[in-house]
Amino acid sequence: VIDGVLYGLSPKLVAFALDAATGSELWRYDPKVAGAAQRGLMYWPKRKTIFFTAANELIALNATDGTVVSAFGQDGRLDLRPAGAARSYLAVTVPGVVYEDNLIFGFSTTEDEHALPGSIRSYSAADGTLQWQFDAIPKIGDPGAETWAEGSLDRAGGANAWTGMALDEARGILFAPTGSATPDFYGGD
User: Fold this and answer.
1) Model confidence pLDDT, tens digit, residues 29-61
2) DSSP assignment, residue 127?
3) Which residues on neighbouring strands pair with residue 174, listed in sequence order?
4) What is the dihedral of CA 150, 162, 87, 70, to 10 degrees?
5) For residues 127 and 125, what is the distance between their CA atoms, to the nearest angstrom?
6) What CA–CA distance (Å, rounded) separates 174 from 182?
7) pLDDT for 167
8) How far does Cα 87 stand from its chain's mean position?
9) Where in 45-89 does DSSP place strands (E)?
């Protein structure tokens, strides 16, 4: 509830705003995405913007009237899949973290040999441009890569932050739990 308005998502990811005192509907927005799940939404106070994810897309809405923020991403939507991962499974099912002018996300992926390598990424809340990325699985040449068995980084995935993260806003520190590297049901590789 912000300034007397209750913002929420239906089970079919229809975003809505209600007058918190009367329950009367102020607006609704249907992203027309089937089969996706989400556990909440985010609010950016600087430009009064509501953000939520639907599968692999981040959607930006004007909190006042529920219209799409066309300057964000591509007509209010941003594909969160990393470059070259168009066919790999990625979904964001928990709200990200809003910190200053940044939207910070982890993601869900599979737990098999097709899993995307885990990363935490921060996007500009103003236009959706990528601000920074932390790779939980190092790329060859990155710090920590030397601790992996030869050839294992070529096929490693997972180690992703699929659940909620915690922010120490005063110190600017993000705490992000991660899963295991994949495939995580067989340790021989």
Assistant:
1) 999 988 788 999 999 999 999 999 998 899 999
2) T
3) 167
4) -130
5) 6
6) 24
7) 97
8) 18
9) 49-54, 57-62, 77-79
Q: How many CA atoms lie within 13 A of 160 on its CB side?
A: 26
- Tokens standing for 108? 């869900």
Chain length of the chain = 189
pTM assigned to the model: 0.91
Measured over the CA atoms of residue 72, residue 75, residue 77 and residue 80, the dihedral's sign is: negative
For 58, the token pair is 């981040």
Tokens of 83: 């470059």
pLDDT at 189: 57
Q: Which two tokens stand for residue 26?
A: 């102020």
Q: Rounded CA gap, 40 and 94, in Å? A: 6
Q: What is the pLDDT of residues 88-106, one digit of tens each?
A: 788 899 999 999 999 999 9
For residues 147 and 140, the answer to whether their CB atoms sit within 8 Å is no
